[in-house]
């Protein structure tokens, strides 16, 4: 497949992982953001493990994006990278989407 297959007419968070694992705070944020925002969280893994993860067995995407396990990219609906974190942070991801979509910050609080 191609990276563009993971994107759509919404904001997409691409989380780079070794075997598809996602830290609980980030996984919870993916779920919480999907309700109030046009958003989808996707996982790119170096090796299989998680069924819904895209597998980059050649490491090509990791290299192209300068990513390592734990990196997070936020891609706009037009396909441009809006933000990048070397170490994923659920709170910063939320803040970026709240700012981009002019949402109320409490939209995503538990």
Can you describe this structure?
Helix 1 (24-34) packs parallel to helix 3 (90-101). The protein has three helices and five strands, in the order βαββαββα. The chain is an alpha/beta fold. The protein starts with 10 loop residues before the first strand and ends in a 9-residue tail after the last helix.
Quick recap:
The protein has 110 residues and is α/β, with parallel strands linked by helices. The chain is 26% helix and 23% strand. Helix 1 (24-34) links the parallel strand 1 and strand 2.
**Strand tally:** 5
Roughly what is the average pLDDT, rounded to an integer? 88
Strand content: 15-25%
Q: Strand-and-helix sequence, N→C?
A: EHEEHEEH
Helix content: 25-40%
How many strands, which pairing sense, and closed or not: the largest β-sheet? 5 strands, mixed
State the shape.
Answer: globular
């Amino acid at each position: 497949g191609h990276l563009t297959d993971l994107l759509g007419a919404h904001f997409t968070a691409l989380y780079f992982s070794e075997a598809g694992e996602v830290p609980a705070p980030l996984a919870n944020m993916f779920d919480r953001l999907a309700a109030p925002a046009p958003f989808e969280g996707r996982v790119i893994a170096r090796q299989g493990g998680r069924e819904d993860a895209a597998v980059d067995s050649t490491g090509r995407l990791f290299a192209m994006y300068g990513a390592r396990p734990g990196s997070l990219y936020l891609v706009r609906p037009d396909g441009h990278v809006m933000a990048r974190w070397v170490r994923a942070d659920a709170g910063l991801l939320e803040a970026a989407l709240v700012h981009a979509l002019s949402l109320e910050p409490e939209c995503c609080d538990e």
